[in-house]
Design brief:
78 residues; 4 helices; globular
């Protein structure tokens, strides 16, 4: 169970909600977006970085392994 409550889509800024919907359609999950919506400016900057990496030279497998490792290091069960 998250310590910080997730932001409901109706309470998000329009561009953040649109990004959340994109992730929901793309990967079938929006929890990360709902969590990051607490700090919209940080979410925007991270999303810009993430999309640059996604469209960049790094293959998806190392990126996913990095994400899983970071989650484990931070005791994140998500």
């Amino acid at each position: 169970m998250p310590v910080l409550p997730l932001v409901e889509p109706k309470d998000m800024e329009p561009d953040i909600r649109q990004t959340m919907e994109m992730f929901q359609d793309w990967i079938g999950d929006s929890v990360y977006s709902q969590f990051m919506a607490h700090v919209p400016e940080l979410f925007r900057k991270f999303n810009d970085f993430y999309m640059a990496c996604l469209n960049g030279r790094v293959e998806s497998e190392p990126k996913e392994l990095s994400r899983l490792r970071l989650a484990r290091l931070n005791n994140c069960e998500y």
